[in-house]
Amino acid sequence: VTELPLDALETLKSIVGPSGVHDDGTLLEAACKDYFGRHTGTAGAIVFPDTLQAVVECIAACDAHGLDITPQGGKTGLVCGSIPSATGTGIILNLSRLNVIREIDPVNRSVVVDAGVTVAQLHDALQPHELIFPISIGSDGECQIGGVVSTNAGGHSVFRYGMTRHQVLGIEAVLPNATVISNLRALRKDNVGYDLSQLLCGAEGTLGIITGVALKVLPKPIQTSAAFLSLTSIDAVIQLYSKVSTTLSDFLTAFEILPDNGVQLIKRHVPDGVAPAVKQASWYILLEVNSASAAIDLGDILNAELASHFENGLILDAVVSQSESQRKQIWKCREALVFAQGRHGPVLSHDVSVRIPCIPALIDRGRAAILDIIQDVEIICFGHVGDGNLHFNVAHNGPYPAFSRDWQHRIERALYSVVQDLGGSISAEHGIGEKRRHVMSYSRSDCDIDAMRMIKHALDPNGHMNRGKIFGSRT
Amino acid sequence: VTELPLDALETLKSIVGPSGVHDDGTLLEAACKDYFGRHTGTAGAIVFPDTLQAVVECIAACDAHGLDITPQGGKTGLVCGSIPSATGTGIILNLSRLNVIREIDPVNRSVVVDAGVTVAQLHDALQPHELIFPISIGSDGECQIGGVVSTNAGGHSVFRYGMTRHQVLGIEAVLPNATVISNLRALRKDNVGYDLSQLLCGAEGTLGIITGVALKVLPKPIQTSAAFLSLTSIDAVIQLYSKVSTTLSDFLTAFEILPDNGVQLIKRHVPDGVAPAVKQASWYILLEVNSASAAIDLGDILNAELASHFENGLILDAVVSQSESQRKQIWKCREALVFAQGRHGPVLSHDVSVRIPCIPALIDRGRAAILDIIQDVEIICFGHVGDGNLHFNVAHNGPYPAFSRDWQHRIERALYSVVQDLGGSISAEHGIGEKRRHVMSYSRSDCDIDAMRMIKHALDPNGHMNRGKIFGSRT
After folding, report:
1. A107, A199, A450 ranked by CB distance to B356: nearest
2. Which of B139, B271, B108 is nearest to A242 (CA)?
3. Cα of A422 to nearest chain B Cα, Å
4. pLDDT string in tens for chain B (475-residue length)
5. What does the H/E/C string look like for B308-327?
């Protein structure tokens, strides 16, 4: 915790009220730590505006006093994007008091929400309208829409519905110069000049503070089925994907992969019955289909499709959900893997993507490159294989603490070199924040990064907005 | 035609060869006219680079000589975005020689194409792979991907697949400073810094020259059915939309509206048999569904769905395609409307959008506002009602020339005031170009436009890139 100039503190208090500013205490300290408490930044205060106008005034005040601003939502990101840097001297602007669902339009299939609305809150509000917001991530209860949009979050249904950016119809945001850009009209088509909303989506709060968002929503599926499949090789996984992404393309929402060593970790560390009872194989696929149509029997369609892949030998064994609770049980296995890894010991997480046909090469070459460096590890590749996105995790078998910073960097370099060579991304869905800054060049050219800096400098010439994120600490 | 400095001309010829530069003649004159030959700009030369490197060198040369650059593709836009302005003194950079389909990846469902590839060329190349690119517009044979992406084109299938921006996985472009940004890795997920591709998509060539694009493609539907429906009121249209956009949501690709006065124009001006034989009513809906699944009978599903809306009285009459030729016949009616309008006389076209529930108010209030100004006209509202997007056209019943510039402006002001009041867009899919520049403020705040200018100035400080488009002629 650093100290703010007294007049700055007074100005902020006059804007949001004394209860909206904390310049010390546990609340500020907690806000400076990342979700898992592994990283700590510093700030002079945390400020809780509760109106758009208050956000505007806070930003103007910070600009006048030369203070940096770290926008903060649910703080569930994994790359230190929503906590201040270790050398921070500014404020944290927490958006959680902007938490009104402004509008639900069932015919237009759109909502307008404040940035501080959580994803779970939106899901709940849509329930009575038989609508869904198709982005659902592990942290639904805590993550806020402003953060979800700022980080262009992914999740389990990207294959069908796209990333968060594809749900965004428009945003309202306060720019670093304390002006407000706004497009919350929830239009499906609107080609009037640059799409500023798409620019701020994924900009991780470095170009302005998102205060409101207009989003697409969808009719709630009335049928959903999940299947858990054993497959004997990664090539079979790609072949199966290639088939079902065509035959089931109207219905397929998720195509997730789990490795056998991950499932063994679940069996070891998580109570019985979580891992579905299928024959052991090197890879497992969690596949989900849904439909809003009452005119078809999706269970029959899925069974027939899977049966054909038994016959051609692609699938070794399968469990198909016969009820909603069985469907949830299948997904529990996916969630249990994250938990089991944590129980097993220290984990280095990576979030990489390649083109789908390059997945086998990514796994083979990535694994070999890491095992060249360190041997006593489990390499657990799981995730959204239908989007070309794997969480390429390295779990140490030995006692904690296992990974020095030097090990981390050596492993990163080894894996990201493979990713680069395959034309992939070193951050498929988690963003850059502060933690992936030093490895951006594996996936972006200097010219690309220079162009980003030009835009950053144009909108935020003093670099106050989320300093140290995406770019180096002095932009 | 203006004259270029001789040394500039020599430099350009040295880059693309003498046959790639025309500084006079019919080719240059034609390139200065818009698609319908109604507007004419001026330029000193048209230049045809055939490699990325040549584009880079042309831009560097223009920068060195202080020449403006108008990027030009198929020139099928309707807002004078791809011809130079009337006071232009620079060059036209035509991308048509960059016309290679670089890559088709059927498993990743992606393509990488040069900017000069036409949409029809891409459709043809995908045919043997059983894949489609879901953007299809009236000018498929001529419009080029670079222009389609630069203008974020829409078309008939936006309801299902989104706009062009939703198909874009990445772009390669030459910025005004002659550096190249590039993301043609065709990744589904890639959250590494700002999404420059999304920024250039829809920027109408004002931020740089798109030279290549990575696009999503989709499995070719194996079943497609179209229906042409009579409905007695616009409220019934919205009610029907509200129903089928849920029940058919997995399959619905198009929900287009045609007004009775438009269908009467077709009957008068286009050979017999084009207008489907349904009972006359005030509105007609052209609806299309498709599926890549062999496990369902889409015709049955569509028939059952429509039958239920006969029973509840929403639909008065219907024709459903029983064959591919009948399906094409139904679409011919949609295309014939554009032709029939032209035959009828002078037309003022508008391309506006509102939220879907506001469509009836848009039609009523827009019509009343226009009829207040001018009476001897047909107001023909047709188009992509399922996206909230109407082509709100005013066809004069009297002899040509009918609409003075003053009439045009009065009608625009009347209609756009209604659109603004309903929170709509004055350019849903056609963009701003030069023709809609003066009305941007009906749909964007000064703050929004200022932010766009900041970005424009950051990337193109001298304003050489497509000068006069989106912004005023001096930015």
Report:
1. A107
2. B108
3. 9
4. 788 999 999 999 999 999 999 998 999 999 999 998 999 999 999 999 999 999 999 999 999 999 999 999 999 999 999 999 999 999 999 999 999 999 999 999 999 999 999 999 999 999 999 999 999 888 889 999 999 999 999 988 999 999 999 999 999 999 999 999 999 999 999 999 999 999 999 999 999 999 999 999 999 999 999 999 999 999 999 999 999 999 999 999 999 999 999 999 999 998 776 778 899 999 999 999 999 999 999 999 999 999 999 999 999 999 999 999 999 999 999 889 988 988 888 899 999 999 999 999 999 999 999 999 999 899 999 999 999 999 999 998 877 666 888 989 999 999 999 999 999 999 999 999 999 999 999 999 999 999 999 999 999 999 999 999 999 754 3
5. HHHHCCCCCEEEECCCHHHH
Cβ(B225)–Cβ(B312) under 8 Å?
no
Collapsing DSSP states into helix, strand and coil, what is residue B9? helix
Through-space distance between the first and last CA atoms of chain A, rounded to whole angstroms: 23
Q: Give the bridge partners for A287, in sequence order.
A: A227, A255
In chain B, whose CA is at the least distance from the CA of A244? B293
Helix-helix angle B298-311:B234-247, to 10 degrees:
140
- Which of B107, B190, B245, B429 best probes binding to A when mutated, by most A CB atoms within 10 angstroms? B190
Dist. CA A338–CA A189, nearest whole Å = 39
CA distances from B213 to B53, B94, B147 (A): 16, 16, 11
Helix (H) or strand (E) holding B103: strand B101-105
- Residues 133-192 of chain B with CB under 8 A from chain A are 151-152, 154, 158-159, 162-163, 165-166, 175, 179-183, 185-192
List, as one string, the DSSP characters of B360-422. Answer: HHHHHHHHHHHHHH--SEEEEEEB-GGGTEEEEEEEESSPSS---HHHHHHHHHHHHHHHHHT
- Across B211-236, b (16+ Cβ under 10 Å) vs e yields bbbbbbbbbebebbbbbbbbbeebeb
Of A425, A449, A451, the CB nearest to B190: A425
List chain B residues with CB under 8 Å of A419.
Answer: none
What is the Cα–Cα distance from A79 to A468, expressed in whole angstroms? 12
Tokens of A266: 């679940």
Asked if residues A127 and A84 have their Cβ atoms less than 8 Å apart, the reply is: no
- According to DSSP, the residues that pair with A168 across neighbouring strands are A215
Q: CA nearest A411: which of A398, A426, A424? A: A426
For residue B119 the two structure tokens come to 């949409």
Please, which residues 191-230 of chain B have a Cβ atom closer than 8 Å to chain A?
191-196, 198-199, 201-203, 207, 218-219
- Token pair belonging to B122: 């891409």
Instruction: Compute the distance between CA of residue B117 and CA of residue B96 in angstroms, rounded to an integer.
Output: 7
Q: What are the DSSP calls for A399-417, one per residue?
A: PSS---HHHHHHHHHHHHH
Preferred mutation among A179, A192, A298 to probe B, highest tally of B CBs within 10 A: A192
Closest Cβ opposite residue A301 in set B198, B251, B295: B295
Chain-centre distance for alpha carbon B45: 27
Residue A454, chain B, CB below 8 Å: the answer is yes
Residues 330-369 of B with CB under 8 A from A: 353-357
Q: Give the H or E element holding residue A323.
A: none
Q: Between chains, do A295 and B451 touch, taking CB under 8 Å as contact?
A: no
| Check: complex ipTM more than 0.95 | yes
Classify A138 as helix, strand or coil: coil
Pairing between β-strand A69-72 and β-strand A91-94 as defined by DSSP bridges: parallel
CB spacing of A189 vs B424 below 8 angstroms:
no
For chain B, the maximum distance between any two Cα atoms, rounded to a whole number of angstroms, is 75
